[in-house]
Every structure is written in structure tokens, then in C-alpha cells.
Amino acid sequence: MAEEIKRLMAAHGIEVFVHHVNDAEPKGLPTADLFIFGSPTHFGKAPGNVVRFLKKLDLPPGTKYAVFATCSAARPDRKTGRMPTEDELEKLRRTIPMMDEQLSAKGMKKLAEMKVFVQPEQMKGPLEEGWQEIVKTFVARVLERT
């Protein structure tokens, strides 16, 4: 998804650099007009390395950001066959709220968020059909707010 965001932003003449949190230094990021942070969802939460990176992040208050996460699509309970409610699903999709908590505590300004769903039968993908349109809408929202 990060590469698709990069491609779509480049089509608007915007230079984008993609870095994995394990390869970036949270206290030494270059200045930018906008930071976009993305994360998978593991067992309902952002992975520890993402949370640690965001906790250590050193960006000035007012810095603009957007976030995205991949989440498992809804699936029926294996025993009962009952589909979870939206409230139940949101409790299992805490990645974006966890990221927002860290970033807003630093005084950063959120511009947009996006969830893209992974097919429920697979932990690591593939993404559900139509994900490119969701990314396109996200990029459009980011561009109109920057």
C-alpha cells in the first residue's frame, strides 16, 4: 500500500520516500510537509515496533500526518456462525487509534486515515478487492487537506 500511495502522489508531482520503521531513526527524520504512517494490525493492535517508533518520534507540534492500517475483514464466528457487530470489530481494530494516541500527544495534526482489509482467511493478505480505490480516495483526501 505504501508503494501505491507513493505512485499516486508522484502522479501529482509529489516526492515520497518510503521507509520501514526498523530502518528509520525516529529522532532523525528529515523535514517534510507531511508524514504518512502505516501499520498492519496484529491481534487487534499495532505491532510493538510501530508503537515504540512512534513513542520515540521527534517531530515538532503542528506537523501534519496521515495514517493507514491493514485489518482483517469481518468473518463469522467459527462456532456460532454469527457475524461480529461494528462495535465488536472496532475493538479488534485498534491500530489507528493506537497510532493516533502517540502522534496527537506530540501535538501533530491529523489529516486523514485509511483502513484496508485483508481477506479473512489469510493473516498476511491478499488485500480485498477494490483496495486500490480505497488508496486512491485516501491520497485524494490527503492532497486536498495539505
Quick recap:
The chain has 146 residues and is an alpha/beta fold. It is built from five helices and three strands, in the order αβαβααβα. Helix 1 (2-10) packs across helix 5 (131-145) and helix 2 (48-56) runs parallel beside helix 4 (95-105).
User: Given this structure, which CATH class is correct?
Assistant: Alpha Beta
- H-E order: HEHEHHEH
Percent strand equals 15-25%
Number of continuous helical runs = 5
Domain module tally = 1
User: What is the CATH topology descriptor?
Assistant: Rossmann fold
The Rg value, from CA coordinates, equals: 16 Å
* Secondary structure: number of strands: 3
The major sheet is characterized as: 3 strands, parallel
Query: Strand order within the widest sheet?
Result: 1-2-3
Question: What structural class is derived from the secondary structure elements?
Answer: alpha/beta
**What CATH architecture label applies?**
3-Layer(aba) Sandwich
Mean pLDDT comes to 92
Shape descriptor reads globular
Helix content: 25-40%
CATH superfamily: Flavodoxin domain
